Amino acid sequence: MLIDRHIEKNGGTTFRGLLQSNERLGRCKYVGMSTNERNIVRALRNRGDKATRTLTDLTNSTNRSRVCAEHHFGGFWNTIVALRRMPPAALTAGGCTGVRVVMRIREPFAWYVSWYLWQSAYNGRKRLNATTLPANLQSRIILGSPGNVAPDGTAKCGRCGPLTSAERAQLTHYLSLVDILAPMDCYGEMVVLLTQVVGDWFATTFLDQNVHGLLRADRPGLSGPLDLRNASDLCGEDDPQLPRCRALVRRLAADDHRLYQTAAGRFALQLQQAEASPAWVAAMGSHRAGMAEARREADRQADRQRPTQPKPRAAVAVEADEEAARSRAARGKLKKAKRQSTAAVKLIGGARKSADPAAAAMAAKA
Fold it and tell me: How far is it, in rounded angstroms, from Cα 33 to Cα 16?
């Protein structure tokens, strides 16, 4: 069983598409968007079995299928612990055994910018400042503390603030349950590394899906004069490097920065070990070829769906004039050919009537 812990704005929609494409290929059965006990039991129990309702009951099931699951909301870590306490035979399918968890962490400044732009599609727009920024939200989403995060980008925990020592210890424990903890910067490497963790049955080709496409200026509920489309608008700074805004996020979301550094460090070690394997080069090459073909196919589909643009009136007029000229020239050639043909017929007919053999020969030759 492969489970993606979907943290908002960390490529979860794209990864969902990847899991669903594996289901279409017959590689696994997709379960989403919550991996609570009921959904997992439904995915793994025997077909037609209504009596099996708990993970304990599931140990008697014999109908196994690989599961590609996405967890987006609701309880999670207790379910993972319960699954890993089950006998290996109860979680074996298609040569795979047990549960593997993947999770991505994003650089905090980029995360907050994406978060606020995304949330602004639903409930108004706010500038990123010390008053509006709920601190360490990636960490708190993992902890499950703002069950919670309000639709306008704020959180029910208020400004949240730094994690307590108990919360940091809990976060460390949860991260220990994750098999692949990857920075968003290494998305391609992450999906290829999954083939070495869960097996080479996992197809790694995906298409980027960005929910910023949901942003619409005419969406009901938008308020305020801001038209936020990038970090400069969001932070109110003209400097493209946005030093003041970055410093604000670093100060208020220090625990999220530590979380990102932990993910980057752990993944670097995993990647270093994977690259030592001869199979890595082949897997990465296959992934890149698949991605290139997927992008070409996406471009072809976009071209087929793109409406044909009407030609400018001036171009249409020029084409009409050229076509009329070609038509007049063709009619002129046809009339000339008819005249020549008529003259030749008359000449031949006159020669036949003539008694002079030489004149007849000249007419026939003409």
Answer: 9
Q: Does residue 354 sit in helix, strand or coil?
A: coil
Contact between residue 1 and residue 83 where contact means Cβ atoms under 8 Å apart? yes
DSSP 166: H
Q: Is the pTM of this model over 0.85?
A: no
pLDDT tens string 20-79: 999 899 888 888 776 666 777 666 665 666 666 666 655 655 556 788 888 887 678 888
CA distances from 327 to 312, 321, 333 (A): 23, 10, 10
Q: Which residue matches tokens 């309702």?
A: 53
Rounded-to-integer distance, Cα 254 and Cα 248, Å? 10
Strand ranges (E), the chain:
2-5, 29-31, 67-71, 92-93, 96-97, 100-105, 180-183
Measure the CA–CA gap between 115 and 10, rounded to whole angstroms. Answer: 10
Dist. CA 27–CA 240, nearest whole Å:
44
